[in-house]
Amino acid sequence: MPNVSTTKMSSRGQVVIPGDIRKKLNLKAGTRFVVVGERDVVILKSIEPPSLNDLDELIAKARRDGKEAGLKSSDIDEAIERARRKKQK
User: For 38-67, what is each residue's pLDDT tens digit?
Assistant: First the structure.
C-alpha cells in the first residue's frame, strides 16, 4: 500500500514531501522531478539522468536506426542548419 500523507504549499509555491515518503522512495536533496498538472491532480515523478552506459546504448541505437533509414551525416548537418535558421527568424 502506498504511503499517504498531507502537506501544504508555501506562499512561494514550495511543497514539502513528508520525511517518511522521502525515506521510502530514497529521495535526496537535489532530486529532480517532472511535474504534471491536470485539473485538481498534481503528479511529481522523480527523474534521473541516464548513466553513461545507457547513453552509449542510446547513441549506438540512434546510429543503427539512422544507417538503416539511409541517413548520411550530411543530412544531419543540413537538418541542424535548417533548425538554426528557423530559430533565428
Answer: 999 999 999 988 899 999 999 999 999 999
44: which strand partners?
A: 35
Find, among 37, 8, 7, 11, the residue nearest to 20 by Cα: 7
CATH 2.10.260.10, the chain: domain bounds: 1-48
Three-state DSSP at 22 gives helix
For domain 1-48, give the fold.
Answer: Pemi-like Protein 1; Chain: D (2.10.260)
Nearest to 33 by CA among 52, 48, 50, 15: 48
As a whole number of Å, the end-to-end CA separation of the chain is: 52
The overall pTM is greater than 0.85: no
